[in-house]
């Protein structure tokens, strides 16, 4: 009766149009990208699997895991995630480039421990005897020694252990008290000290400030291992192979060269050579980096898997607590390394807890001088600043966003608080300044309590280029990119497989690759993507038959 | 040396300009509002107190309260908050209008219990005997009875208590087992059932879905009390007096008239009159509403406090699970009430968990018809839809935002997920559609795990009108608006007292008040604001002398 005079159809048209306008800036909007029929079909299949698993897996009760939901706390959810079909599919997806990764936490902790155990030079020490009451609160320290100074003291769990003395890591493991689990107990303890566990992230250290303390501790455990050159080379290789295994074909690694100028820990010096005592020049370090990358590239080509590995480059990083004078000196070193390794050093960043350390504005003069020096020398080392990795509103870290952008940052590391800044969002959209968004890192480090609470959809709907990154997978356990892609995919009903595909494309687009190398990377990705799409459609066809 | 050729001053100028542009849309931006010298001084004083307390209170260790920080979980922080000087100042601030409040949870739970105990008609029942092992998991039910059916059974904690039978609430209290704390134990139990405690919000029910179950339970306990007319009148009075006490001079109350059409609980009928059995017409209800408001207005005038209370109006609400046919009938009732109480009924809304119940689009036809009928009758009942109270991206509740806006909502209840929608943000800014932001509600209901994680600064920096609201203070314990204002103030270094003042101004501006009444409300607020500012400046002067 009355309904005749109400314009339902007109309303529906307005609604479709409004939703379309609202999503017009998205990377997956049909106006900007034409998907193939196979892509659309694969997307439908994946949405369907997600929807089924939302009920069957995230709607079910799980023993010992309360509060289960899609996009929930990663460290608790990981055991569930790996069992999903959705995750299995994502592990096979070509991810493009990994553009935000700290080399110091790039490798699985158990692999790091294995690498340490392979080196007789590596020793371990503790500030106290390890027993049932101290084990959870004590972190080990590692250190390489020359052969004539190897120590074979009995072990860390002996009453006679003298605090802070060094024991061969192999011996310490062999002799670890059987009441604490023996060698396996040793492994659990060391891996625990190198990683963040759910109890820490969601219980004992459940604020941004507290979890950064544990995060820093984990780095302190890992650092001396990585500084030992034989491990450095091996862990880089292990990292790149793990990337390839997860479908990542290219990476720009934030590499800390441990400047002497840090107030970090005076006992920490430059990298240590295989002899356990000589220091290693940066030149040697970069030569090894180059060799490892070239070796893998050759191996992959020989195996006919050239598309799976384009390469790896370095974003040169320093810590945010150097003073300005030291920074000037370090930046000169960076310039000279760039002149020697122009293909390898592709950017510069300052790292460390933005709220705890100096804001970018404090480094204004050295950073402007650095840019000037680049012009003089005819080189280009763009900035890739961490900025806005914070919940603060107008805090130091939040204000870093203004400076990162004014200083011409090419991408922004995290940019979590960028959502608060309409003008900066506009600049990032217009200048195509990509955000290196690290979903799991942000959640574990308590910027967001679960993925649905993450600002990612805001960036996406505002047309800001986004690349998904893993940040410190060695510490968080999100090796590769499949876990981060998974958390993003299950936390939205708008985002689908094709959205992830567009983000993977953008990761190559927003990398520092140029010219022929970039084209090769993009074509290789496109070939693999087409195969991946075909695989999903076939999988479904087989399942239906 | 080199620094001469670097344009530091130029950089600084660009920086100031960029920050200014980024904040240009804020309600407190100097381009849109000229603050007095006293206001600027008061703002400085308050920022200073905040900064000192960030260290002295939020930087200190508190026994039994781990993880203390500004803007932390409200239910845990409340005991600390009330001791701060900042909070004491905010309790004295004139807040303007409270525009998002559910009448069913508008009054402190212990007051609700006191009101129940004053009524011999009120009885209580439980689904089981209350003892040490059942008390935490059992919620009581209340019901009014006529005098000839009063029940004096011994008590709820007796072994002989027959589940689901009714006991006089006074007797049940008197006879409550002393092992469970006796009458005080009864009070704790009932108040606990009417409220959400920290263990529930941050432990046992720590997801949006689970906490909504507890939230719904609390409403089920409160509802029958409020439906009993003598309590209805008293609790409305108690609510308005509490508002006045906290500096709120006007409110638009979402009033549920408990339509028969609900599938909520068939045993629940319309409101019950003082005789404990007759049902009450909506007309009677609104007459009482009018009387309570007019009485308080007169009392305040007599006390020379006319500026402190402008009045209270009704946003007529129904639950989101009515069917379309029932909704049509209810909307006709709403229209007839509007014709009779044109000054009282100022809007319409549909309430309830947006993810669990029907989306707005399901009600499209009745809602469009309702608008058409308003035109025919020459009345205006604008929509004040709840929309986007969710973490979902593209979920039912998130999609409600499109419909709320297309249907012409005057304000948006919550709009939490609006941040994800650039086009809708633009529309809200341009059409001045205010968001009724409920910081503590959002946090307790687990949309945000603490205030710093809340999207409020995004709305503010994008120039979207925001009014801060308490939502369900009876259940959350955030009586008045001081707690919500506090959480907002301590979670930002950009927002200050003057920002809160502008939001208070906007609460009157974005209310349904018009003409002379609005002008009177605004002038009254301005007078009180000027006094408040003066008070802060004097307080500081006295402190310094």
UniProtKB/TrEMBL annotation, chains A, B:
Keywords: Hydrolase, Metal-binding, Secreted, Signal
Principal place of residence: secreted
Residue ranges of domain Adenosine deaminase in the record: 271-520
GO CC terms of this entry: extracellular space
Highest taxon, organism lineage: Eukaryota
Requisite cofactors: Zn(2+)
Catalysed transformations (reactions): adenosine + H2O + H(+) = inosine + NH4(+)
SUPFAM superfamilies linked: Metallo-dependent hydrolases (SSF51556)
Keyword Ribosomal protein: no
GO annotation, biological process: adenosine catabolic process; inosine biosynthetic process
A matching Pfam family: A_deaminase
Gene Ontology MF terms in the entry: adenosine deaminase activity; metal ion binding
Location in the cell: Secreted
Cross-referenced InterPro entries: A_deaminase_dom, ADGF, Ado/ade_deaminase, Metal_Hydrolase
Enzyme Commission number(s): 3.5.4.4
Family: Belongs to the metallo-dependent hydrolases superfamily. Adenosine and AMP deaminases family. ADGF subfamily.
Protein name: adenosine deaminase
Organism annotation: Serpula lacrymans var. lacrymans (strain S7.3) (Dry rot fungus)
Lineage: Eukaryota, Fungi, Dikarya, Basidiomycota, Agaricomycotina
